[in-house]
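New to this. Explain the following:
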Amino acid sequence: LRMFIRPSIALDSAQLETHLAQVIARKEKLLSKVEEVAGKDALMSNEKLAVVLRGLGVEPPMKPSPAALKRGEEKLTYAFGKSDLEFKALLDHDDERVQAVVAARMGVKSTQAETRAYRFIGMAKRGLMAVPLRYYAAHTGRAGGDDKVNLQNLPSRTGDLSLRRSLIAPPGHSIVTCDSAQIEARVLAYVAGQWDLVEDFRRKVDIYSSFASDVYGYPVDRKAKAIDENGKEYHPHKLEGMVGKEGILGLGFGMGGDKFCLRLKQQAGITMEPEKAAEVVQVYRTRFAEVPKLWKQAQRAIEQMVKGYTATIGVGIKLQCYPADDFGPARIALPNGMFLRYPELRAEAGGKYGVEYKYTARKGRKVETIYTYGAKVVENIVQALARIIVFDQLLGIDRWMGKQGIGTDEYLNVAMTVHDEGDAVAPDHLVEETEAAMLRIMSTPPKWAPELPIAAETGVGKNYADA
């Protein structure tokens, strides 16, 4: 509530106007490209877009129709959404015409960047940026946006930083950020009882380089530097390091080779052959063997809950699982008294993998059927635990700031949160003290997992991008 009713971040109107102009220009450029291939109208119709893709030699990707599933029917529809992996993969198609069609469809069908720029400009005219936050938005308790503003999905740190630069500190103040480093990978290792990895995190080993060394069969140091023939400095193990990073961050929840290929392309711009990606997956599952064991344990827990029995998941943290009863749906108890809930958890025969486990989720007025399995439940657990840790840390930061005795004319409070990060606005004379306090609080493990090696990183700047 304080993030909204006591706002402390300002908005740079000139930066936002420039950003909006750039967004519109990029959109028009995409449209001009695709008109040469299909015509603008084809983008707005699934059927016409499918015809265009087939004319270019591409079979349109399909997925189960949510509307048909609600009626108990099995029917396929076109997978043309921004979150549909097969459709996104066409952005890397060999034919540039296909790339243009898909990119333009994403830009035209979803005008998120454009509407967000307009919305931020409107907010700038009203004063400081009141941060609308849905406290419990996702199934795992993660925060989300509200009132058509979602700061959780700002463009990434490596993309267009214009929007991030538009978030500025008021005069005489700075933005202080503190990010919980690799929180999900750390929690996963601890819950699974992968103690060698936990110890590596504790000793501050470069986990990404270590895993990359296992993948490539030679010592990898992603931070190493060298000088090329032109006298320019470069990182000789940059590619291997990025593969190691994406492996550690992405392979802990059952991802296979095909999806890992796509992740590498999307997150790091790396093209990897499917055979090599499958090899990386296998190296991960062998190197961190306790993680696949945790997936199997979670799969057995699902089966037990459906049958009406209790179960336990986890080694470093043991989580009790309950079947549906008079107290609620099938659920997993979290260490702070909250629950991960799986309403109407059931087993259905005849799926792609034989018996499939599904539950019902409500998103606003919509009711969705969600397919789940052991590795997915582990991902839910890890995200929920990370959420608890970070939110408790944010409360700790807020309490520390409240004790500083700053007058009402000063800004010193948690201004916003983005994923596993807390962001504050502090007077310039208190920046170093604030940064040190945030780092200390966000490096302290929770009471229910005192041996969990937590770490954090801080940054300071006059705008959010610089911080």
User: Anything to note?
Assistant: Residues 351 and 357 are 9 Å apart (CA to CA). The mean pLDDT is 87. The first helix runs from residue 2 to 5. The two ends are 23 Å apart (CA to CA).
